[in-house]
Amino acid sequence: MSVEEPLFRVVRGVPTAEDLAALVGAIVVRSRPAPAPATAPVSAWARSGRPVGAALLPGSGAWRASGLPR
To answer: How many C-beta atoms lie closer than 10 Å to residue 36's C-beta?
Structure first.
């Protein structure tokens, strides 16, 4: 039979059972991996309103070109 080392120990003070439960809960939550952020698909309508790289440059005819289909 082997004796396992504790995961943490209290070095100062006398915590209550509620204090220890809160500490264990915080450790458990922090040790879980963060969930991947959910990315919603972008509709074609939303994509059409976004400029594409260097396709829209200022200059002669830029205002007219901004309204033309690509």
So the answer is: 6
